[in-house]
Amino acid sequence: MPRRFANRPAGAVWGQCPVYEWFSLCPHSLLPTVFSQPTAQLHPALDEPVHTKAKPEIHQDTEVELHPLVLGGRGKGRQEVEIEDVPENDGGERLQPEIRPSLHTLRSPSIYNDTAMAAFGLKLSSEVKYLKGVGPARAEMLASRGILTVEDLLYYTPFRYEDRTRLARIRDLVPGQAATVLAKVLTSGLMRTRKKGTYIYDLACTDSSGMLRCKWFHAIYLERNKVFRPGQQVFFYGKVERDQYGTGNLQMIQPQFEILPEAEQGGESLEVNRVVPIYEGIGALSSRVLRRLIAAALPVATESLPDHLPASVRRKNRLVDRGPALRETHFPDAKAPMEELANFRTPAQIRLIFEELFSVGAGLALKRRKAKAASGIEFKISDSVREAIKKILPFHPTAAQKRVLKEIADDMRSPRPMNRLLQGDVGSGKTIIAVQAALIAMESGYQVVLMAPTEILATQHYLYIKSLLAPLAYKTDLLISARKAAEKAELKRQIAQGDINLVVGTHALIEGDVQFARLGLVVIDEQHRFGVMQRFKLIRKGPTPDVLVMTATPIPRTLALTLYGDLDFSVIDELPPNRTPIETRLVEDADRERAFEFIRAKVKVGQQAYVVYPVIEEGGKLDLKPAVRMYEHLSSNVYPEFKVGLLHGRLASEEKEGVMQRFKRGEVQILVSTTVVEVGVDVPNASVMLIEHAERFGLSQLHQLRGRIGRGSAKSFCLLLAEEPRNEIAEQRLRTMVDTTDGFAISEIDLKLRGPGEFFGTRQWGIPAFRIANLLRDQEILEWAKREASEFVERPASREEFEAFVGYLREHWPRRYGLAQVA
Ligand code: ADP
Ligand code: MG
User: What secondary structure letter does DSSP report for 589?
Assistant: First the structure.
């Protein structure tokens, strides 16, 4: 598997589970009837244990990144790798020259008439394997992205377009500008840089007007797959730069590319002399292959293609019909202005974006309507609750904490189920809010469950809550898989009998034999760490529990409000008092000794430090060796005088727990760790964090990691140790970290750098992975479509139209998003 997909979360198949995730972030009854839900029928692939779903240690940015040239819904940051050697015997029919004529005449309208459609014998609902050029192997690759039918394929839209009617000549390239050139490969190969373990793939090419070099960092796959050969004609697209170090030659760093097959060089085709759609590759299916498959499927997109968008909505909003919209989005008319195309603002593109956002908006509106009708527990907030809270509060809550608690309390005493997302930056004090909500539930005689993503975090919460609740008579316990079988069995018995009031735990809580007598409140900490099914299963352990999900991953507020129309939001936008701001410094690798000395000085005066090391995924496996070597080096060579500990995800639970406890007690002064410390760990005496290979981490991950320090009274320092070469995006991430500690500012920048496709992955938010819409780019269309959707749900033009559209949602959304089994 090419490296570029290394960070796709398991189970987060594009276009499959996301909507499910999104519809069920919140509990039980909120799914509209359309998406009705009994557990037994859910997609088995979604139903994974936490350790495969939310791999705790995969850091996000091992992969090579590209220039931020395109903010496509999916395409940004992806590389189109043209892998020519797809096995010939994949069982499928290869695209043979004889079918070319039909591809060539694609733009002539005659091909879209019904005869042509009949001739191809294809329907929207036909499986892709019936398409010419798709055999079982390719069908499987397509299926990995949720593309099962011709319709799915037609909705696999380009993420950008290249105007190959006007190719730039190398001689005319201007540094600083992006361009497409068609050039012949001269030489290419992998080079090792002076830095250990860093490779650059270097290619030289020419187009008779001049010479250009192309470079890709760490691109071992280019060598391994023998992607380039001398003499090939290749399109390169990227930002042009002048090589600062060497010759002053022109170069492109990490350009996207497309190799022109020999048979086609010079000839008329889908790839030259026209505006060419560029698709994100799927496995070994390159953009070029996808372009051909889509061209073969396009005859289905006739004028008479049934349009599910309600006619009244189409008319009112002057939207293009579906068939032409699909055709023009894939193979735009030569007259379509490039700028509009690039901004996804041609009428055809607008229609498809609107369609998608309208459907989501309508789904939300239906769901909201249903939520209003659901009934939940009316908790009583009496003086005894106030007394209890007063007894346990260890500090004065901040104004933000008070406000948020009131919002939660109001939900809890209302007769409908609470369904609230509590967002607050790292260290803003969410835990105490959860404890107060728990008290409200327990005072009314209900049980509470709190689920955390790791054993370390669950244990920490348990110990903290237990000590807080000590003055009261409630029973609290901890359910994690590491405990002895007999203890667990006994604990489960007590939970089922209602003897335990508050259970803290990990995903061990969702096992079938954990049953509650009277579950009233479910709290899920760091909700983005869990898969949908895990949240869902926990919530279903009570008939209608209130639900509070907490997260430290800030989402830009406008987007949040638009997308979570149905989820209530609380934000803690204030840090507890007396925090000294963390100072963050960028340290070049050459200065690492000084960084070590800095840590030594802090530890000498009684403070503690984290040294975080990224875990690299190699061939699907996590490689812990570098982190372990670092630990050995630090403990025996650098800090022989201190106690150094090692923490990583592969340690047995007791070992992890032991190390954490020793660190908490100050017996371990320096903790070398992988990103397992990322969530929630609270050791106020730790005031320094050194992050190795900081250039490899994602922004929000860096922010989460840094949140482990700055929790005590000593001024804290975060040292980002970074290696060269770094690309521009890595550079911006590091600069952002140095410049700000504001989680919301960081999330906005993160969103811009990654593009929403990555940012809003299932892991973080469970917002649907849109097929063409892009939340950054399409904010206006989003608002517009949302308005129209609410209007349509509340006041449809006719009963028939309403039912037809809801029928369409019922039929298509579940299947398209992997919910085939849900009736
Ligand atoms: P997070 O929101 O990241 O989960 P925590 O709940 O772990 O944050 O709180 C971070 C630290 O701040 C804890 O040590 C907690 O005891 C402390 N804290 C929370 N609220 C306050 C407050 N109002 N005043 C003082 N300290 C607080
Ligand atoms: Mg927390």
Answer: G
Q: Which of 535, 614, 599 is nearest to 567 (CA)?
A: 535
pTM (2 decimals)?
0.62
Within the chain, how many helices (H) and strands (E) appear? 28, 23
Residue 82 CB neighbour total at 10 angstroms: 23
CA-based nearest residue to 587, from 575, 579, 596:
596
What's the pLDDT tens digit per position in 672-725? 998 777 666 789 899 999 999 999 888 888 988 998 898 888 899 999 999 887
- pLDDT of 728 > 70? The answer is yes
CA of residue 284 relative to chain centroid, distance: 22
CB-CB contact of 426 with 743 (8 Å): yes
Strand locations in 702-806 (E)? 717-722
What's the rounded Cα separation, in Å, for the pair 214 and 576?
50
User: Which residues contact ligand 1 via a Cβ below 6 A?
Assistant: 395-398, 401, 424, 426-432, 552, 576, 680, 682, 684, 711
pLDDT band at 527, cuts 50/70/90? Answer: confident
**What's the mean per-residue pLDDT of the chain?**
78
- Residue 555 CA to ligand 2 center (angstroms) comes to 17
Is there a contact between 421 and 569 (Cβ–Cβ < 8 Å)? yes
Lowest-confidence region among 258-262, 376-380, 546-550, 730-734: 258-262
How far apart CA 613 and CA 621 sit, in angstroms, is: 16
- Using omega within 30 degrees of 0 as the cis cutoff, is the peptide bond preceding 545 cis? no
pLDDT in tens, 239-267: 898 887 666 788 998 888 888 876 654 44
Q: Which two tokens stand for residue 786?
A: 């949302």
Confidence of residue 554 (pLDDT cuts 50, 70, 90): low
Ligand 1: atom nearest CA of 684 is: 14
Q: Near ion ligand 2, which residues have CB within 5 Å?
A: 680
The one-letter code for the residue type at 197 is G
Q: Which residue stretches of 165-286 are H helix? A: 220-224
Burial of 779 (0-12, 13-18, 19+ CB in 10 A): middle
Helix axes 431-443, 383-392, angle to 10 degrees: 140
132-151 pLDDT tens trace: 889 899 999 999 888 989 99
| Structural element, H or E, at residue 551 | strand 546-551
Q: Which ligand is nearest to the CA of 422?
A: 1
Cα of 480 to ligand 1 centre, how many Å? 24
Asked if pLDDT for residue 51 goes beyond 60, the answer is no
Q: If 0-12 CB within 10 Å is exposed, 13-18 middle and 19+ buried, where does residue 812 land?
A: middle
Which residues, other chains included, contact 641 with Cβ-Cβ below 8 Å and sequence gap of 6+? none
Q: For residues 60 and 685, which has the higher predicted lDDT (pLDDT)?
A: 685
Closest CA to 255 of 237, 278, 242, 280: 237
Compute, in angstroms, the gap from residue 607 CA to the centroid of ligand 1. Answer: 19
Distance 562 CA to ligand 2 centre (A): 26
Indicate the range of 160-169, 366-375, 399-408, 630-639 predicted with least confidence: 366-375
- B/e letters for 176-194, b = 16+ CB within 10 Å, e = fewer, are eebbbbbbebeebeeeeee
Tell me the C-alpha distance between 561 and 782, whole Å: 12
CA 36 from centre of chain: 25
Q: H-helix or E-strand containing 783?
A: helix 779-794
φ, ψ for residue 233 (rounded to 5)?
-95, 125
Read off the pLDDT of each residue in 444-459 and give the average, rounded to a whole number. Answer: 92
Q: Are 329 and 158 in contact (CB under 8 A)?
A: yes
Alpha-carbon gap, residue 351 to 326, rounded angstroms: 9
Please tell me the residue having the least CA distance from ligand 1 atom 23. 397
